[in-house]
Amino acid sequence: MVLAAVGQFRATIQVLANAESCLNIIHRASKAGAKTVFLPEASDFIGLNAEEGLKTARNETPQFVKMIRDAAALSKIEVSVGIHSPFHLNNDATVTPTKTTNTCLFISSDGEYHKLHLFDVFVEGSPIYHESKGVQKGSSFLKPFDTSIGRLGMNICYDVRFPEMALKLRREGAEILQYPSAFTLRTGAAHWELLLRARAVDTQCYVMAAAQGGKNMRRNEMTDQQVGKHDEEGRRASYGHAMIVDPWGSIVAQCSDMSTEPSFCLADVDLQSLRQVRQSMPLWDQRREDVFPS
Ligand SMILES: O=C(O)CNC(=O)[C@H](CS)NC(=O)CCC(=O)C(=O)O
């Protein structure tokens, strides 16, 4: 058995303050005995718009990442953290970036994943999100890799709605799936728990879902044009409810709905019980590859 932690906090455009929130979670989760801590999508900042986001990612995110790396080393804990990184065409640093990637870093083993599915949606009663305006979607699948709590498959947020990705990660050996997120209030209330538990049950994996929670922007942090674009009060807010789900689909830890202060919850990862779930219901031996080829 090993302890894992998932974090919840409210990132704003203030990168250093966001870093302090992450450090607070990292140090406390480590003290509590966690071997790995998962932080939300876009922990470095929640931007105002695409141009500002790119500028902040170029100028400020490197310092944010350094602070997280140092804290992980100091606290001797593995950290998964969502950030933005400038997108360079063909990986050529001399090409001026026009977008960022929505990236998750796994610090210590240097896993790096770029979000494959972007949140371009129009949901009645919810702010409009057009993630691809500022973000370049990833182009490759990242194989699961070993961590101190088990073999980890990386996803980000909206990826949770694409079960083929979770199935592929399981097929490639994942024992743990992560979904660092900043879910909207409306879709979160309707789908967050349902999707996370479904992915856990589909794949018989642990699910680690760190989440942003609370109002990401205050009115006085926004320009006049930005006010009104997010919700009726001109603010963007995230659903919270960071949680850990076990391979049977039970929620084994969940952060408080009330807390917008940096917080975390902990659960044991028990790979023996994972194997038991997989043996007692051997889905992977029963898949009808002849009818539904993978
Ligand atoms: O990169 C950033 O700055 C923050 N990124 C996000 O908040 C992303 C893209 S806008 N949010 C989601 O994917 C929410 C998905 C969701 O809510 C759903 O699937 O229902």
UniProtKB/TrEMBL annotation:
CDD domains the record matches: nit (cd07572)
Every CN hydrolase domain range: 2-271
Keywords (A to Z) from UniProt: Hydrolase
InterPro entries reported in the protein's UniProt record: C-N_Hydrolase (IPR003010), C-N_Hydrolase_sf (IPR036526), Nit1/2_C-N_Hydrolase (IPR045254), UPF0012_CS (IPR001110)
Record Pfam families: CN_hydrolase
PROSITE patterns reported in the protein's UniProt record: CN_HYDROLASE, UPF0012
Name by which UniProt lists this protein: CN hydrolase domain-containing protein
Organism: Planoprotostelium fungivorum
